[in-house]
Amino acid sequence: MRRYSAFAIAREAARYHSGWERAWASPEPKSEYDVIIVGAGGHGLATAYYLGKNFGITNVAIIEKGWLGGGNTGRNTTIIRSNYLQDPSAAIYEKARSLYETMSQDLNYNVMFSPRGVMMLAQTEHEIRGYQRTAHANALQGVATEFIGPQKVKELCPIIELKGPRYPVLGALWQPRGGTARHDAVAWGYARACSDMGMHIIQKCEVTGVHQDKGEVTGVQTTKGRIGCKKLGMVVAGNASALADMAGFRIPLESVALQALVSEPVKPCMDVVVMANTVHGYLSQSDKGEMVIGGGTDGFNNYTQRGSFHHIEETVRALVETFPMISRLKMLRQWGGIVDVTGDRSPIIGKTPLGNTFINCGWGTGGFKAIPGSGWAFAETIAKGAPGELAAPFGMDRFIEGRFIDESVAAGVAH
Ligand SMILES: Cc1cc2nc3c(=O)[nH]c(=O)nc-3n(C[C@H](O)[C@H](O)[C@H](O)COP(=O)(O)OP(=O)(O)OC[C@H]3O[C@@H](n4cnc5c(N)ncnc54)[C@H](O)[C@@H]3O)c2cc1C
User: Fold this and answer.
1) In the chain, at which end, N or C, are there fewer CB atoms within 10 A of the end residue's CB?
2) How far, in Å, from the CA of 295 to the mean position of ligand 1?
3) Residue whose CA lies nearest to ligand 1 atom number 48
4) CA 363 to CA 69: how far, in whole Å?
5) CA of 237 to the centre of ligand 1 (A)
6) What is the radius of gyration, based on Cα positions, of the chain?
7) Distance of alpha carbon 308 from alpha carbon 298, whole angstroms
8) 191 close to ligand 1 (CB < 6 Angstrom)
């Protein structure tokens, strides 16, 4: 595949952009692959990419029931950070964050990584203590964060109201190299690189059954027929329980709708990401000028990809306390995704009860930031047949052993 470059843009400009190639191919499925990945979201595509790049495994199909990146990967608010409390989480999220730093160069695709800084506001005494503890833990883990006072918060984000009516801003946990990236571009960049390695991305092809023989998977039944495989990777986020059900095992997670909304575009007014976990809302400004607003999950399990209406009202009402200026903005659009939430708010990466089948799910409300790290660790798990150092703590057996990686308390909200 031809490299994208300033020279290529100039060349195409001179010939009316008639020479661009398709970014990825759309082949018909073969009868068998070495590895099938179900789910062409960011995590599935990144897994395929690192299978090829790190292990030379390229006879791979990535099977997607809709369009690639059309699940949560294309629906999130794009926050990237690694300021987690527990060591295994900090390790995998920081690996991911560091891979984001060079992703555009690695993939030869501009993913618009913008390390503009992420702050998590402390608006109660309890939060101050919690975030100071996380800052100390991060120092030991090699993750660059610091606890900053209210004046520094105001300097970094002038549109904040420090003396909110219910919750004043008392400080923040600040990660200067956290930020955002263009979510679709992450999926498209990985897809292009996978296609370039000869992998098959098969869209509009739903997996409807899992064929097995003597405790091993032999292939999957799809809407395009049966496709055989030597190894199977399941990476379907909110549909993980449904796919596991087809394969005959259960996983400890719930699927709920999480939603977000954007305002009309306005002039640049905020060049950091702010998360206000006490009032529950988070805010950043996109390159187009829209204020990107994320809210909470529905209080009940569902697969609607929409979310309940009252959440929009609650989220905006809460954010207006801390950002009064947004009360004058018109909201443009709202959407939802089905997130896969585990009891300890940490992902599941590892083996399943079926010998040659592996699962990667449970990233819940916060897996966009993890895409490259998760793909890296899951590719290693599939290639070697067992998890490496990054993935090992995240096995499903932790729910049997009571060895939780509890980020529900540590992260407050796990976006
Ligand atoms: C509103 C919202 C805001 C969020 N904000 C953030 C944020 O700011 N930062 C952050 O880090 N994370 C955030 N997240 C979470 C993040 O989006 C997800 O954790 C991440 O995108 C999951 O990626 P994935 O590749 O696992 O899943 P997905 O992108 O959902 O991909 C899974 C794919 O599997 C496909 N699939 C499912 N079943 C089948 C089947 N039977 N056959 C074939 N294909 C199938 C689906 O169509 C889908 O494309 C947010 C999520 C939402 C919904």
Assistant:
1) N
2) 16
3) 71
4) 15
5) 5
6) 21
7) 7
8) no
Instruction: List, in sequence order, the alpha helices (H) in 302-415.
Output: 309-322, 371-384, 398-401, 407-410
Question: Of 73, 62, 58, which is closest to residue 305 (Cα–Cα)?
Answer: 73
Instruction: Choose which residue among 93, 298, 365, 407 to substitute to test ligand 1 binding: the one with the highest number of ligand atoms within 8 A of its C-beta.
Output: 365
pLDDT, one tens digit per residue, over 314-363 is 899 889 999 999 999 999 999 999 999 999 999 999 999 999 999 999 99
Range with top average pLDDT, 52-56, 292-296, 408-412: 52-56
Residue 254 corresponds to which tokens in the numbers above? 């719930």
What type of residue is 198?
G
Rounded to the nearest whole angstrom, what is the distance from the C-alpha of residue 40 to the centroid of ligand 1? Answer: 9
Hey, what are 166's tokens?
A: 């219910």
Q: What end-to-end distance do the CA atoms of the chain give, in Å? A: 35
**The token pair that represents 399 in the structure block:** 């729910």
Measured CA to CA in angstroms, residue 92 lies from 194, 250, 388 at distances of: 22, 25, 11
**pLDDT, tens only, 231-256:** 999 999 999 999 999 999 999 999 99
Atom of ligand 1 nearest to the CA of 238: 30
Closest CA to 318 of 279, 274, 292, 284: 279
Please work out whether the CB of residue 75 comes within 6 Å of at least one atom of ligand 1: yes
The protein residue with its alpha carbon nearest to ligand 1, atom 13, reads: 366
